[in-house]
Design a protein that fits this description.
With about 375 residues, this protein is an alpha+beta fold. It has helices at about 15-20, 30-35, 40-60, 65-90, 95-120, 120-180, 180-195, 200-215, 225-245, 255-265, 270-285, 325-335, 365; strands at about 225, 250-255, 265-270, 290-300, 305-310, 340-345, 355-360.
Amino acid sequence: MISPSASPDAPRFDWTQWLFPGPRRVFTEAEILRSGLGRWSTGIDCYVLSNVLVLVIVFYQVLPSEFLLIVLGGALTMAVLGLAVGRWLWRQPSRTRFNGAAVLLALLMVLVTLVLVKLGLREQAREMLPFIAGGMTLVVSSWWFLTLYRTQQIGARLAELDAQEERVALAQRLATAQIQPHFLFNTLASLQHWVDTRDDRAGPMLRSLTRYLRATLPMFERDRLPLEQELQIVRSYLDIMQARLGQRLSWSLEVDEAAQDRIASASLPPGTLLTLAENAITHGIEPSLRGGHITVRARAHEGQLRLEVQDGGQGLRAGACEGLGLGNTRERLRTQFGESARLGLEPAPDDAPGCLAWIEVPAVAAS
């Protein structure tokens, strides 16, 4: 027999399944809780009980009248007992539990048969034996399929969550790789030129770059970053870019009173706001000959925390599509906050030049 949960490297035939059938994998309480699939549906109870009643009605004309109450009571009892064991297997599916339940049911059926014989109902017990055996086979088969289904359900969900975490980790590594090369090389080149020419801008830029690197190099190893720290990174980044671009770039930070309290306790996936600021510089300000102004805003309204980066650059081009940075950011937000997190990119409001990138997350979830 092929093992239901065999790995590709496992033997094709697992002879232990003939003596001790069931899935090999055993989930811990933490794994089941992580899967988020712990709820038992009451629809299963209704389905099983209704089918038992249908079977009793179908066999109404076949069974002797003296057996009707016994069969009806026995069928309902077995259904209730089977559902109770089903919930037990649902909470922790394993081959040990399944086989234990099957052995106990077999012993119960033998005990019921012996009781009927002791009561002098040998002939009746003999006539009911096919129904008892059929009911037992049906119940054990249902437990078997329930155990297999539940094991595969939890295993698939855990594999999906692992894949999501791997995608997030990859997105973080990609984000780190995106931030570093051209930005650092260009900044260091400017810094070296200013040092060589004894330009007064070298000192402030070096301090901003030091703050930026100290904050950004370790941040992508974390799942969440305090929003205050993220804002400080954005400030350092914009200071550096302002020093490099000179009069072509100016920037400001606006935080309303409602968001001020939220910022102290809020956190986001690392680099979320920084990615929007980088896009504003790379695709908005740098391609524009006249440059522009960047405004970073934080607002809180109706339980939502909204972060905006608006640039006064060249605006969205026709046919522009979402790049890798925004795609990674969207995926990381969805992983952290679910479908309640949103990210958008649109033309700047009020016919202003440039474009507006924004993020909305539940304020409670961000805290």
